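Problem statement: downstream parser choked on a complex file, so we are re-checking the raw output for the zinc ion run. The parser issue turned out to be on our end (a line-ending mismatch), but while we're here, posting the original submission so the record is complete.
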Amino acid sequence: MTLRITVWNEFRHELEKANVKAVYPEGIHVVLATALREHLADAAIIRTATLDEPEQGLPDDLLATTDVLVWWAHKAHAVVPDTLAERVQKRVLEGMGFVALHSAHYSKPFMRLMGTGCGLKWRDAGELERLYVVNPGHPIADGLPEFFEIPHEEMYGECFDIPTPDELVMLSWFQGGNVFRSCCTWRRGKGRVVYFRPGHETFPTYYQPEVRRVLANSVRYAAPQSSSPYALGSPWESRSKSPIDAAGAGDLSLHETTDK
Ligand code: ZN
């Protein structure tokens, strides 16, 4: 199956700040897309989309034909309409993969999917980050060494206000002493969600080979797993059709067997 991947980027810092433009002259999305092409080649169709395009870059037809959505955002989370976040969430429940990068921890789609505050500690001192693989059998860790280092990064530290991940793949240690759950996965409905921490806009993190491999592995992992249908809310709808409500409390097993 050819994977249809959409890389979405807020694309504001690169246009407004010279020090970011120097690192990502064509935008972070272009570098992310190049990294994915490098690893996935003909196995994927990779498209990019940005916030200031019509319909925030994600019209219905694009979202409907996206198997995995990669999301980078930082300063303009509030500009993303709630309706778009809701559409993304719905697609994830239906089976689309969602890969949230770095400051996307505060993006509307990610927060909706998590249901928690998603806050964390941070410090932008350009310090060393060492990422330990704590789940070497996980597909996202495929091909990675025991640990790898990013020479200069923004620090994100615990406590990270997320639901306990279904799987923790990497744990970061920073020069300043903080630790962080850097690569986590969750299942929501039929979809898979990945959060991967590195990628502050002033550092060349997304050019680093280990990071590019994690991006590609994450996209492969988040790909839809099943083509069976998923009807939103259907379990609750079927309950409302049962005679329990009308009959009041009673023999639930009897009522359940009559609800066919
Ligand atoms: Zn940052």
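For whoever reads this later: The chain has two domains: 3-116+181-229, 233-260.
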